[in-house]
Inverse folding.
């Protein structure tokens, strides 16, 4: 009897793993788009940093503005900002490694890795006296670059910076996000859950990042799901999730920041008031703005507010 129960238990545990592996093996590799769905005339460019090919765009004329996206998204999260900001800035936006259509190296996706890559991108592009503006980890990365005195960084607009909750802020998006990202941290089970991913689940998680679901462009939702079907993507994302607690450590460096900083939060962001205050108090001279009816993906939720705040803060 005990042997029978053991065999049944093994089957119950192993079956989902095997099915998920089969599903993953059957996924088709998505085609890399040659153009941007929201700006087909804007050239898509690639550069190599430490042997990793990164996708990026550069457009506009004026002082440099570098836009940095959230975890699991890509430069297209700024599609409502770039055309307008390019009227007064030279705008750069890139896909991090393991994100969008950049390469997916087998590495540890730690905060140090992202900060290093972005810093080297700034160097490679010879960007000077720049404003760095980003959402979530894209807000934390420039704060760390500023703290480490990167010569390209003149000021920072950190939007819903991801430096709290031991990297589990995303579990506050909604119940689906809580379930998926809680399970993702568990060895074997996390891999199995990620291999079972589907567009309906991913859409629901994305909806947890905006105050209103219609703020999500349909093309953006489709493309971010397609990106997740690339070979090696889910493993890279799992690695990022399992290293996410390290983003909390960023605050320890904020006291070294000497450039102007604007912290921007959507009033419906995943961060709590106490967490926002803790970040504000760490950064010498930082200013704080709260945008009404805005969620975590503020560049999609309230693009006009973000555009206004960036221009006011930079006097451009």
């Amino acid at each position: 009897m005990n042997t029978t129960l053991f065999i049944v238990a093994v089957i119950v545990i192993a079956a989902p793993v095997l099915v998920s592996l089969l599903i993953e093996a059957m996924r088709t590799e998505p085609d890399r788009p040659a153009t941007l769905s929201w700006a087909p005339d804007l050239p898509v460019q690639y550069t190599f940093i430490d042997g990793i090919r990164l996708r990026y765009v550069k457009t506009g004329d004026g002082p440099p503005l570098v836009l940095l996206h959230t975890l699991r998204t890509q430069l297209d999260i700024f599609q409502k900002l770039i055309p307008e900001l390019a009227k007064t800035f030279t705008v750069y936006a890139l896909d991090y490694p393991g994100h969008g259509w950049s390469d997916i190296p087998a590495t540890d996706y730690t905060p140090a890795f992202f900060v290093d890559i972005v810093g080297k991108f700034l160097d490679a592009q010879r960007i000077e006296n720049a404003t760095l503006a980003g959402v979530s980890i894209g807000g934390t990365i420039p704060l760390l670059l500023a703290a480490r005195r990167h010569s390209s960084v003149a000021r920072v607009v950190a939007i819903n910076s991801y430096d709290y909750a031991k990297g589990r802020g995303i579990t506050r998006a909604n119940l689906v996000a809580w379930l998926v990202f809680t399970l993702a941290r568990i060895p074997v089970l996390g891999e199995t859950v990620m291999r079972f991913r589907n567009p309906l689940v991913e859409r629901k998680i994305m909806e947890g990042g905006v105050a209103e679901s219609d703020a999500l462009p349909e093309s953006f939702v489709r493309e971010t799901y397609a990106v997740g079907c690339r070979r090696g993507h889910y493993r890279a994302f799992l690695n990022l999730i399992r290293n996410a607690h390290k983003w909390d450590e960023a605050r320890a460096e904020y006291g070294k920041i000497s450039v102007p900083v604007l912290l921007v939060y959507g009033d419906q962001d995943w961060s709590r008031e106490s967490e926002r205050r803790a970040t504000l108090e760490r950064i010498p001279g930082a200013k704080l703005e709260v945008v009404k009816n805005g969620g975590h993906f503020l560049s999609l939720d309230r693009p006009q507010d973000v555009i206004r705040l960036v221009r006011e803060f930079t006097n451009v």
